[in-house]
Amino acid sequence: MSEARAVDLDGELTIYTAAEQCPRLLAALEESPTVRVGLAGVTEMDTAGFQILLAVRHEAERLGGAAEFHGASEPVLDALAIVRLDGELRPVGNA
Q1: What local confidence, expressed as pLDDT, does residue 90 receive?
Q2: Among 1, 37, 45, 71, fewest CB within 10 Å belongs to which?
Q3: Domain boundaries, the chain
Q4: DSSP state for residue 89 in the 8-state scheme
Q5: Helical residues (DSSP H) of the chain, grouped into ranges
Q6: What is the CATH number of domain 5-89?
Q7: Which residues of the chain fall below pLDDT 70?
Q8: Which of the 8 DSSP states describes residue 92?
Q9: Helices (H) then strands (E): counts for the chain
Q10: pLDDT for res 95
Q11: Cα(63)–Cα(95) distance, integer angstroms
Q12: What angle do CA 55, 56, 57 make, to 5 degrees?
């Protein structure tokens, strides 16, 4: 089994940056079916950001791996809570 591939995101995770971030994350899955996505540097997130995270998780599971979300920033935690995806995407390492 291959080692998890780490990808740290920073700045906006919005409709304006989704076209840049999604291919980057999917490319990481080509290297390893398990990816650790760092969210500590994300300053803003909208529904396009949710779609990216859910798509990455879905693709990782399809490949037999997993997507792990770590160190979510306050803007990410707030956005997830507003749309009630905080339980669905469960970032770890925020204590």
Answers
A1: 63
A2: 1
A3: 5-89
A4: H
A5: 18-31, 47-62, 74-82, 86-89
A6: 3.30.750.24
A7: 1-2, 85-95
A8: B
A9: 4, 3
A10: 42
A11: 30
A12: 90
